[in-house]
## 1
Amino acid sequence: MIGRYVGWKNLLLIPFYLFLVSCSMQKKLSRSAREFAKNPSLQNAQVGISIYDPAVNQFICNYQADQYFVPASNTKIPTCYAAMKYLGDSLVAFRYRTLPGNDLLIIPSGDPTFLHPDFSSEATIRFLKKYNQLFLVNNNFHNQRYGPGWSWDDYQDDYMPENNALPLYGNMVTFTLEKGRVKVHPKYFEKLIATETKQPAGFRVARSFGLNDFSFSPGADQHATLPFSTGNLLNPGSLSLPAALLADTLQKTVSQISLPYSQYQPFVAFHSQPVDSLLTIMMHRSDNFFAEQSLLMVSDTLLDEMDSQKIIDHLLQSSFRDLPQQPHWVDGSGLSRYNLFTPQDFIRILQRLQQEFGIQRLKTIFPSGDSGTLKTFYKALGENLYAKTGSMTGVLALSGYLYTKKKRLLLFSILVNNYRGSSKPVRESMEGFLFSIFNSY
């Protein structure tokens, strides 16, 4: 009996022991955080760090963790949470209703995977080709093509496709040099090319802002991908470009109509891809287009319209109403410098992701060390690290999950703003800081 009593007594001491260890580590980690912030590569920069231990249910390091930072692509973390929570198991490509005469009425939902090179769209194409004519509802998109604060002069860069209700081909045009001539995909855009495509040695392609007047000049490129303008019309008064592109792809008549919301029901949902197949790509390569369209799909699901600002306001008042500090959140991807989050905000969202969806699922969606946007970094941590990067000029962020050498799971968020110079020494300092946590906790 005495031995059994002593055994139970020792078990009761375990939480107290963990608490003492945690207190000791808090001091050590706080010292390491201050040393990291004083690194020469971070001179005059702002640094925020938060580390949370779910085993003892407490923060073990907070360094300016309640201060606001521009998070860059760490903004995709709340977007990912919203998509996992509200989009179900598979994406809704569109909602539809059959009409007399074997016609089809379609309400687009913002699904970015249709005809995208990363996904198969054969099932969707087969379904649409069964019908004679398509009638496309065009009044459920209440969003700007670019997010607030986006750098408009990046409009030709492949990381900034426009947002719209009916994405096709990722809203991108691909140009490839073959036998001295530039081939265009999708071929629809050949009719919109303003200059000769003969470029024997290489080429450079450009278009004007807001237009699809693609032009070529001599250059070094053999392959190029540019966003097309979703609002640019082939002829005034004709179909919108996405509708015209859909008609050209399917070789069918597509008409645009407006319907009041009361007439949207009942419709049948047509599903395209598993949700996680989209989110994995979004998080591994930090795909801005997938992030923005994911947020629009959440808006379509919850609000019956696609409006980024409305769905962000809705989420801040519901799912994220109890974040430690209320963020200033303006887009789904983090392209905007208007976004402001604190490290503690990200810890709370990471905690929600773990509690609601499980760490095993997150290990698939978040990139691990030396993979995705973590490639060439964190090799020594490998599958002990699952995290989302964030970067733009003067901004570097990393938030996610770290398994220590003792197999303890930690949640962390490191946000750095306003550093000068190359990002490489900042990344290396961040890597060293995380590796020291891995070894010591």
Note: The chain has a mean pLDDT of 91.
## 2
Amino acid sequence: MLYSLYEWNHVALSPLRSFAQAQSALLRSPFNPISHTEFGRNAAAAADVFESVTRRYSKPAWHIDSTRVAGVDIPVTVERVWSTPWCSLLKFQRDEDLLESALGRRSDPPVLIVAPMSGHYATLLHGTVETFLPDHDVYITDWADARMVPLLFGRFDLHDFIDHVREMIRQIGPGANVVGVCQPGPGVLAATSLMEAEDDAALPASMIFMGSPIDARRSPTAPNVLATEKPESWFRKQMIHTVPPPYPGALRRVYPGFVQLASFMGMNLSRHIDAHRQYFDNLVKSDGDNVQKHRDFYAEYLSVMDLTEEFYMQTIVDVFQEFKLPRGEFFHRGERVRPDLVRRVALMTVEGENDDISGVGQTQAAHDICSSIPAAMRLDYVQPDVGHYGVFNGRRFATEIYPRIREFIRTMRAQQRPRLRVVDAA
């Protein structure tokens, strides 16, 4: 019922949005004398703000057409190299001929960025991809919106997620560097542990976890406290809803993206109110640069996707209530997951000092449970003065966090080159 009410509300507001757009256009017309008055500028700004906060934001495009490598602009195309109904593996293909002709033959490390499956599209990591591109062959997981997947394609749960990660690592091949951003951390660690236990030829070279709830018992944040205070039945009753027609996934039970978005915004409501107040002021002042920055950010932040009921509920119970992975009690399709067996995959953890989603220590826990990885193949880093989003995006990420990741990948690659050569030869 909640999902249907949400859709009806969107439809009911459509005439008002159209009116606001028309009003803004009229009040900004250079032929309208009111456009040059303070009243006209304020009225136009109010119309723009109303339209922006009531609009439905669709999945954004990547808009990554080039990257700059050693001072040379290299064209980039986004290619789908593998897919299922639930995920596409995208590669940001740099123009290899131009790279070689301009800079000589290169062999950049492959990086698989495992995007969060927690309500936002993979495009939320637009800045992350752009930062990695000059020095790496970059791949990313583009998870499907559950409301767009018909029921005939069946269920998708946490175990399917792990299987997908394993298969995408295999698609890239030996020596991949897997970057788990936030929510995917436990699933990526489980996938890598299973590959190590099975002596998989495509075992990655490194796993890098950024703001991930590997052990959510440590430094619990508000979402962690909520997860432990409420029983499973509460989450199923309050958070799970049915997709209405005419979506392709009609009748599928999901955790709607708009519910997750409301939770995120509620945690920092005053910050979002201030941002929109500033947006209004910048519209009145015709500050185009800051207006566009606001629009770009919220076009990403307010575009959300649904998760399947089974994936969401298993994540709540296994990761945030029963902490099965750090306790050594997580089983994948009947096989116990053993992070303590991982010994050939380098490990780096990155946390933000002010992270209010995954508290400091939750990601570091990977070092404790991956006890067989040699000390020389580990790195733990806590970035001062950044919150959750700043761990993987923004200026501090690009200038302070990413250089450490880049150096870690290259250092570990040099140490592991003999092993990778043997695998390639085989």
Note: The two ends are 56 Å apart (CA to CA).
## 3
Amino acid sequence: IAIPPPLVEVLEAHLAQFAEPGPDGYIFVGPEGGLPRSSNFGNLWRKAREEVGVTATFHDLRHVAGTLAAQTGATAREVQRRLGHASPDAAHRYQHAAEHREKDLADRLAQMMPEGGLAHRSRKRPQPPTDIAR
């Protein structure tokens, strides 16, 4: 996936300090080197986040990534691909975060319209004749 440029420097620093070297090296390395067991990863994550004062779980970070992608205007299919979901159904849960953008979307649509809006521009309405006896 594409990574926002401001994060590249942070990730490079993390890789240099904590990850195994080389393109196939593990990003998360256990205390004795190598890939942490899945049964131990939660403990390692909890310890790391407590050391830096973060309360977010690993899943919380994933949810934030999906929510932020939706807020940028990503489609459900784009969120699906970015998070590795098998179907767009799972990605739809992140679209709720974009619901508050309704006013923004309406404003952007208005900017795309011709100046003066979309007033009906057909011929003038015919006026009823004024010489008809009532």
Note: The mean pLDDT is 80.
